[in-house]
Design a protein that fits this description.
By secondary structure, the chain is of the alpha+beta class. It has eight helices and four strands; from the N terminus they run ααααβαβαβαβα. The protein binds flavin mononucleotide (FMN).
């Protein structure tokens, strides 16, 4: 019984085929808590590799940043900072080291180890975990606001610090490009469809 349920859920993770599973989804619905709206956000998010020049409204950006502020952090230490790159001047500086897929807004997320909680048992510093949570809040809220987005990690942090010295007292954790998708190249890639089945991801003990 448990296995059947897991494999049904696993089928649902094949986003492309979702329409074919409407019936199954109906059956599973009775097991779900929470809102379908949240699952819709998770399902509609994808990594956008090309943006057009259409701007991000100030009110949407404000909502996204507020979602970043609401993120939890270990012991509530809040070691994270967000730099908003949207002026022509700041984007031009950033583009010297990363084109950011042409997004009109890029949020740089950084953190300071010195401001984060350190787990006493093994000395692990929570700063990067806290930064990942903030970035995830930003990413999902951007999706909810109808904006395409892209989590960028493939960059050299010291180059970012060089062109944007305001960031230099923090570790640069990652960047989120936000905007509207370019007509063709802004669509999801084939990687978006590829997820391990739930049976492989989840180990029941
Ligand atoms: C931590 C992290 C870092 C990533 N960095 C990059 C990146 O620098 N460049 C890139 O093209 N994609 C990057 N991605 C996007 C992933 O490749 C993408 O999430 C994955 O292939 C699944 O596709 P999807 O996001 O469309 O579902 C990153 C994603 C995450 C979560």
């Amino acid at each position: 019984m448990k296995k059947t349920f897991l494999s049904r859920l696993s089928d649902l993770t094949k986003v492309k085929d979702r329409a074919n599973f409407a019936d199954m989804e109906q059956k599973i619905k009775k097991h779900k808590y929470g809102s379908d709206a949240f699952m819709n956000i998770l399902e509609s998010r994808y990594s956008c590799h090309a943006f057009n020049h259409y701007p991000v409204s100030a009110s949407k950006l404000e909502m996204i940043l507020e979602a970043g502020r609401m993120a939890p952090s270990a012991k509530n230490m809040q070691p994270v900072r967000i730099w908003v790159v949207k002026s022509e001047e700041a984007l031009a500086k950033l583009h010297q080291v990363h084109p950011c897929y042409g997004a009109p807004v890029v949020l740089i997320v950084g953190c300071r180890n010195e401001e984060a909680w350190v787990r006493p048992y093994d000395g692990i510093n929570a700063a990067k975990t806290d930064a990942a949570i903030v970035l995830t809040h930003l990413m999902l809220t951007a999706t909810d606001a109808g904006l395409a987005n892209m989590w960028i990690w493939d960059f050299n942090p010291s180059q970012i610090r060089e062109v944007l010295p305001e960031t230099r007292d923090h570790g640069i954790y990652g960047m989120l490009a936000i905007g509207h998708p370019a007509a063709d190249e802004g669509k999801p890639t084939e990687l978006h469809e590829q997820r391990k089945p739930l049976e492989e991801l989840v180990i029941e003990l």
